[in-house]
Amino acid sequence: MLMGEYMHSIDAKGRVILPADFRSELGESFIITKGLDNCLFLYTTSEWENLSNKLKQLPLAKAEARAFVRFFFSGARQLECDKQGRFLVPATLRAYAGLQKEVVLIGVSSRIELWGKEEWLKYNEEITPSVSSIAETLADLGI
Fold first, then answer.
1. What is the 3-state secondary structure (H, E, C) of 8-47?
2. Which positions make up the signal peptide (predicted)?
3. Nearest one of 131, 99, 124, 133 to 8, comparing CA atoms
4. Nearest to residue 97, comparing CAs of 123, 79, 78?
5. CATH classification at residue 84
6. Is residue 12 part of a domain?
7. Is residue 131 situated within a structural domain?
8. Largest CB tally within 10 Å, which of 30, 36, 90, 130?
């Protein structure tokens, strides 16, 4: 299970250090793609295959389904870490997520999210007041 929050810098070439805990979970290669909320998602190969199979089941006739599948797959790349534990974030994905000098990697159960530090701090400021009401809604759903 992927969990935790790690702050790192992104170097001039667009490389980010993947925390050792995450490296052991992801394996030798992993998938990175555009995520929701202006971040990037990183998946293990097996989790990506599971998700891909679910997305393939979406109805091709629905415009929303086509748009989501395009969005998700168009940015996807298979990556590996170098000997120093760094991976290169493709330029298009860096631009999409607005990654600058400081980044945050967070474990979210079955995926890792890669955020620009400022965007992550802004998101936390916005979501924190709502967490109690979100928890109540989830409790109503049996969670």
1. EEECCCCEEECCHHHHHHHCCEEEEEECCCCCEEEEEHHH
2. none
3. 99
4. 123
5. 3.40.1550.20
6. yes
7. no
8. 30
Q: Which residues on neighbouring strands pair with residue 102, listed in sequence order?
A: 9
- Token pair, residue 67, equals 């748009």
Asked whether residue 16 is assigned to any structural domain, the reply reads yes
**Phi, psi of 109, rounded to the nearest 5 degrees:** 65, -85
Q: How many structural domains are present in the chain?
A: 1
Domain housing 24: 2-116
Q: Is the residue at 37 inside a domain? A: yes
Give the length of the chain: 143
Per-residue pLDDT of the chain (143 residues; tens, 9 = 90+): 999 999 999 999 999 999 999 999 999 999 999 999 999 999 999 999 999 999 999 999 999 999 999 999 999 999 999 999 999 999 999 999 999 999 999 999 999 999 999 999 999 999 877 878 888 887 877 77
Report which of 32, 46, 24 is spatially closest to residue 93, judged by C-alpha positions.
Answer: 32
